[in-house]
Design goal:
13 strands; TIM Barrel; 15 helices; 8-stranded parallel beta barrel; alpha/beta; two-stranded antiparallel sheet
Amino acid sequence: MSATLHLAGFLSAGPVVHSHALWRNPQHPTDFLSAAHYAEIGRVLERGRFDLLFFADRLALADRFGNDRETGLRLGDQDATRLDPLPVLAVIAAATRHIGLGATRSTTYEHPYHVARAFRTLDHLSGGRAAWNVVTSLNDGEALNFGFDAHMDHGARYDRADEFLEVATKLWDSWDPDALVLDRGRGIYADPAKVRSIDHVGRYFRSRGPLNIPASPQGRPVIIQAGASGRGRHFAARWAEVVFCLAPDPAAMAAFTASIREGVAAAGRPPGSCKVLAAVMPFVGRTRSEAEDRRDAHNALVDPRVGLSTLSAHLNLDLSGLPLDRPIERLAGTGTQGNLAHVLRISAEEDLTLAQIGQIYGQSVMVPQLCGTGREIADEIVAIFRAGACDGFIISPAFLPDSFVDFVDHVVPALQEGGWVRRHYEGQTLRDRLRSEPAGPAGTRHAPAHAAP
């Protein structure tokens, strides 16, 4: 556990993040199709000295609930609109100077060369702030969009993801940091001896290489991962520098974090090389009562069916045939296993009906909702952090940019006052600020002499 906690902003490039009420903000419209919207969010989070922001993504409209798109599109579920996050990050990069920039890319429906090239470009253009949220995708809708009849099974997806990261890493390391010469007088652009083919031939991929972009400030982007199944945690322990923890309470956060730290040690990586960040959704008020009123007003905007539409997409399972007024007894989906386990647990412990599960899922996708004044929320965050339950927090907004503005204006100052959050950015790159280490060989970690400051 580091002395100061890390902060990240969670986003989707669309009308819904974890909050399915986000686009229904009663105070003002949410202009999620505009560049200005995302640029402003980036500036707000940078003002709050966040380490990074990152965008979740999916590659299909949700159509598992009722096996059609009706509910998700009518009510606005999590997949109703998803802009490509990489162009959005280019907008934010131009509007900011320090905050890390993360985008989701799928190892199931992409090729390593394309992904390695995209994130190296972002790392150059942002001066060393790129991060890749690695996902294996969730459901059959994504498979059908890419010409497959069904989504790959869980184990095969992670086998492919492991090889994907191996190839991408080789491509990022195919240029030495000093390979780019740029000697204008002698007319020498680069040293060919310091640029290598990778000649990878594997089960899922073939790639000759090298990458056609010189080494960037970070060499490789920071790797983010969110797998909660046993296989997902093993993958995270091997590759990730940031792990996104979606857990409904501090006890579950602590158990998840302990498992990741054990896995990192078993993988032979140094302590602290992988940061676990737990998701929370804050509601800030002048009093705790006001904050709770804001939470309740937000939650009342959520239709249980929109939560079930997103949950069906996440589980790759049609829930529409189950009775809304009865508890869930048994479910088996091929999508996200961590969310499935949490849903089954809270349903059993609290004897919740399917409609109640849909309501909870639509409110926050089970992200814990924190209510209080800025100082009260800061104290709650610090208590979770000091207990060793995580290395920091992913702030999930109820409304945009409102929730981030409230957090930055009222919670961050209380955290800074206690020395828990930086007052000024230090270091040149996102990896410097996270104090993390990339997995595997050192490769091209350091900035070449010509890199942007």
